[in-house]
Here is the input.
Amino acid sequence: MKTYQHFINGAYVDPEGGEWIDSDDPYQGKPWAKIPRGTNADVDKAVAAAKAAMTEGPFATMSATQRGKLLRNLGDLLVKHGERLAEVEVRDNGKLLAEMSGQLKYQPESWYYYAGLADKIEGSVVPVDKPDHLVFTNHEPIGVVGALTAWNSPLLFVAWKVAPAIAAGCSVVLKPSEFASASTLEFAALTAEAGFPPGVFNVVTGLGHETGAAMVDHPDIAKITFTGSDATGAQIYAAAAKRMKRVSLELGGKSPNIIFDDANIDAAVSGAVSGIFAATGQTCIAGSRLLVQNSVKDEVIEKLVAIAKSAQIGDPMKADTNIGPVTTRPQYEKILSYIEVAKSDGATLLHGGKPASGPGLTGDQFIEPTIFCDVTNDMRIAQEEVFGPVLSVIGFDQEEDAIRIGNDVIYGLAAGIWTRDIGRAVRMSRALKVGTVWINTYRAISYMVPFGGMKNSGIGRENGIEAIHEFLETKSTWINTSDDYPSNPFIMR
Ligand code: NAD
Here is the structure.
């Protein structure tokens, strides 16, 4: 068993309360590491370090160009340590090594991107209508950032949140999910090696309702950036309002993946599989509702079931595995309970629908790739996020039906559209209330492209230039260029 410590003020330290939590290896089905159970005292210590970093010491006066250099150094270190960190992530969350290793190989680009952006955030001179005034705007760091992340892609979320926050000049206290904290704790050492002054990046681990809640309530944290479920997001939004904290929320989804009859059906079926069975369905952008035009429904279903049957379930570390274990025990139980709900609501089970077992399947947290048809959009299986390998196939006739059904959920994270008709593709993209639309592709993500949700899928955007503005406040400065002041000071100038 490996025992981890918090990372506060540039050093690893034991938790003030002297308590640790087990972190499980989902493939082996047993604990492999201990992570600190953070208390208010740990959060106070980390926030004090982060606040000091922003007000005194080298970071407070560092130029944006120098901040960029720190981020670039970190990118270089990630190139060196990526594979090792990917293996830690797989150990902790059971996702495929092929997936986590691919993510880690790509992550340095996020750090390089915000390294380059750090010193290109310019204010403006406003051609103001008031005579005798010069007005300029500039962008200032928002303050200490509290980051809360989910278990499915821990270091990806670190990159998405921390790179723009530090580029903006903010310091960060981050709490990873209690189910997968190890990679973030190991990553923290790289920030010191990259030259980050103490206190600029801190990691405190622990339970959501303890450590996480203490961060949301902390008076010296100015902004919360959160990735997780919409239920937790709503709690955080309400709690943050008490202190008027700024909040960005990256939440769940129930994304429609929509296949029209003129599509390249083989490509569309591949996209459907990548939308729901990749990462064992544990992705916010899961295309969990497959909307298929009725004229091609049988063909699509036949091809889908064939792929689901041949998918290799097993050890996430092995290169030929397609579907690994479910990350957490509560999540495993939740997925099985949704399968029962779908059956009792009248959906027809086409494939899967039960725990997977067999040689090499240790740990007791595997679920067969599951496909339901005859799903109507009002069923719970079509409305609620399952976060597992469970696909609902819903038939439709006309384009307007696809739009109506596609939008008829509380979420608005993403959508896929499969068609060769460019006009229809554009009409669909305009009509769907989601943050990302993929046309003839699915699950494509880049550090350059804004990502985030509409409706219950969240607030704010990560990636791209606009993400840095999530960590900046705009200030307007007025300068009177004359010596006078108006004769009547009681009216607005
Ligand atoms: P979760 O909401 O249970 O937890 C997320 C984080 O919040 C964890 O660090 C947790 O400890 C913390 N937390 C929990 N309760 C808290 C509280 N009361 N106060 C403060 N912090 C608290 O989510 P999860 O199960 O880790 O992740 C799965 C969810 O994340 C899914 O809904 C998925 O769709 C969503 N997700 C969204 C995105 C996105 O970018 N939109 C990406 C990945 C996952």
Summary: The mean pLDDT is 97. The pocket of nicotinamide-adenine-dinucleotide is lined by residues 148-152, 175-178, 208-209, 212-213, 216, 227-229, 232, 235-236, 250-253, 284, 385, 387, 413, 453, 458 (CB under 6 Å). The CA atoms of residues 201 and 364 lie 37 Å apart. The two ends are 68 Å apart (CA to CA).
